[in-house]
Known about the structure:
The model is unreliable at about 30-40 and about 45-50 (pLDDT under 50). The chain is an all-alpha fold. The termini are far apart. The chain is built from five helices and no strands. The protein has helices at about 10-15, 25-30, 60-95, 100-120, 125-140. The relative contact order is 0.10. It is elongated and about 55 Å long. Helices cover about 60% and strands about 0% of the residues. Helix 3 (about 60-95) packs antiparallel against helix 4, helix 3 packs parallel to helix 5 (about 125-140) and helix 4 (about 100-120) packs antiparallel against helix 5 (about 125-140). It has two domains: about 20-60, no CATH class; about 60-140.
Amino acid sequence: MSGRADSDTEGEMAASETTVAPDETDDRAEDSAPDETDDPAECGDGDLAECGEGDPDDLPEGEEDARRARWTAAGTGAALTLAGLAAALLRLTRSTPALVPAAYAGGAAVCAAAAVLGSRGRTRRALWLLIAGVMVMALGDQFD
Length: 144
């Protein structure tokens, strides 16, 4: 059932659903198990697998895009964090000013924060933090 929960037709619809003759079979009762619920408000935190809606892979288009954006932000943040830390370690072995490896390490820390935010769904903020982290690393490279 879709529509507003406080509509006036809810009582009429419930009465029409229960007026099935005893000798007739109700296909709707066979389609769903008795412990499944169709009301999203009763499904806990909104997980489709808990509601009996099917596989978790059968997500609506918007939720699939959001999941892909979270994975992309988290993965990119982790990759840039590792790259920044590797560059900071490489710069420490050379005779460069101390500001250069510090800038790479600082940029890596900002990218790590972006990875955490991206995994929690804050993908726009994660994108801006990734840009800022790479800019800090590039600024540190200019001092070399």
